[in-house]
Every structure is written in structure tokens, then in C-alpha cells.
Amino acid sequence: MLQIKDVMTPQAEVISPDATTEDAASLMKTLDIGVLPVCDDEGLVGVLTDRDLVVRVLAVTRDPKAMLVGEAMTPSVVYCFEDDDVERAAAIMAGQQIRRLPVLDKTRKLVGIGTMGDFAVHSQDHQLSGKVLEDVSQPSLPKRGETTDQGDGVGRAA
Fold first, then answer.
1. Rounded to 5 degrees, what angle do the CA atoms 77, 83, 88 make?
2. pTM, entire model
3. What is the structure's pLDDT at 122?
């Protein structure tokens, strides 16, 4: 059975929670990526996505030069282990609707990132790749265009 370590992108670039969000955005631009694992001396503590930067920094008009990655990152990290099989990793991604999955070794150190692209390129199971893409792409609730009651009696587009 194919393991995630056989298809993942190894040696992912990481950033410290003490770096500025401006530094993170610059690194993302340089590397042409949309996610950075956030690691401290203990290991993986979160992930920072381009969406995190938009929603938690720009949309609330915070200064990217002053705001730290640790304030903007998503701290709850879904991950798998390098010896997990590809099907398990795919199920995690599909179930959590995520496109990138940090991969840890048994000491919980980051060793890579599994992506839908990795599955598509390296996996012989094209049905698996298609199923992951379909599940990850399902709209979250509420669906776009529906209104939600924000508790103040005002409906807002979701």
C-alpha cells in the first residue's frame, strides 16, 4: 500500500509564530505558495494560509508589519503521519475539506505536506484523487448566497 511519505512534498518551508505577517506574505509570494506551516522549537503549532492573511490581517485593517504570524495563524492543525497510507490521508483531507495536509514523523516533527496535486501526480488511483477533490470542494454551510441571522436581526450574505 502506498504511504503518504511516498507522494508528499518533502521539506516544507516553515515560518515561526514570532515572524511578522508581512514576512509570511513575502515568503508566500517568493515561493508561490498559499500555506505555511508554523513551527516553534517544539514542532508544528499551526498553519498560516493566504486566506488567514486576508481575513485576520487585511480585512480587520491590522498592520502586517506589526502583527505576528502566531496571531493570524490557524492554531488547530489537522495532520497525518508519514507512515499513514494515502487512502487515510485522503480521507482526512476529504473529511476536513482541506487541500493541504501537514505530515509528521513519529516524534511529531514536520517532514512534509501532502496535497491534492501530490495525489493526482503520484497516486495510481485516479478515482481517489477525484473523490478527494470532489469532497474538499463541497460548499460549507451555509451555502453562498444564503443569508444568516447574525443575532442582530440583520441577514447577511454568507
1. 65
2. 0.76
3. 58
pLDDT in tens, 137-153: 566 555 444 433 333 33
How many other CB atoms are found less than 10 A from the CB of residue 99?
A: 17
Q: Beta strands 80-81 and 100-104: pairing type?
A: parallel
pLDDT of 82 > 80? The answer is yes
Separation CA 33–CA 36 (nearest Å): 8
What is the grid cell recorded at 32? 508561490
3-class secondary structure for the chain? Answer: CCEHHHCCEECCCCECCCCEHHHHHHHHHHHCCCEEEEEECCEEEEEEEHHHHHHHHHCCCCCCCCCEHHHHCECCCCCEECCCEHHHHHHHHHHHCCCEEEEECCCCCEEEEEEHHHHHHHCCCHHHHHHHHHHHCCCCCCCCCCEEECCCCCEEEC
Grid cell locating 15: 515560518
What is the identity of the amino acid at 48?
L
Prior bond of 64 cis (ω within 30°):
no
Cβ atoms 116, 129 nearer than 8 A: yes
